[in-house]
């Protein structure tokens, strides 16, 4: 790391452009890169890609802190505001995402009374202000999805058609296969598991053997009543994830389905 910093300093000395904050309204590409990095840091903290714990609060907390700093410097930027809102609305659910032993608790089984209501209120306020500018970008749309989850009284009462409509817009805007994966879940909740499964067919070429693709297919097959197929997909997902808490959850799901009705 020290060598990388030294090389970066040497590179900065060798270019003519000053290393300063961009002027108001400028630095668009640089700002987008900053927001993307903060988004990645937050995601890694909220759902760790590997290790013994489901989350790394040191990373997600630092991402929120830095996003607040960027928002303080650019309060009128709707996407900056949208990213901060997204982090707050998502992180508000963190207290209910794990059980007493640190085990993963899926969204549909979470005790919503444990969600951080002050964070939800702050996130909703920020998101409302950003959307009023009338130029919703990726982070604002993702924050809107998070807001609909946070405002729902239960998993069943979630406004899935609106979430599906937001993912439609996100998919058109980004072309991101992970958005399509989430859209398949919303599609299944809004129009049935077969409709969601139909969206997964073209994702293998984009996502490869990603564990989340197997996991989503498993959940949708379970909803469709194909317990054997769901168990196999849960096993495939468990074999490909490197987060131990997530792996335990997937293995347990596979075992319960394979054992049949109790």
Structure description:
With 262 residues, the chain is an all-alpha fold. The protein has two domains: 124 residues; 100 residues, Alpha Horseshoe (Serine Threonine Protein Phosphatase 5, Tetratricopeptide repeat), CATH 1.25.40.10. Helices cover 67% and strands 2% of the residues. The chain is built from 13 helices and two strands. The protein has a two-stranded parallel ribbon. It is globular and about 65 Å long. The model has no long low-confidence stretch (mean pLDDT 93).
SSE blueprint:
Layout: H1 2-13, H2 28-46, E1 50-51, H3 57-73, H4 78-91, H5 117-131, H6 138-151, H7 160-174, H8 177-191, H9 193-200, H10 204-207, H11 211-223, H12 227-240, E2 242-243, H13 244-259
Parallel strand pairs: 1-2
Helix pairs in contact: 2-3, 2-4, 3-4, 4-5, 4-6, 5-6, 6-7, 7-8, 8-9, 8-11, 9-11, 11-12, 12-13
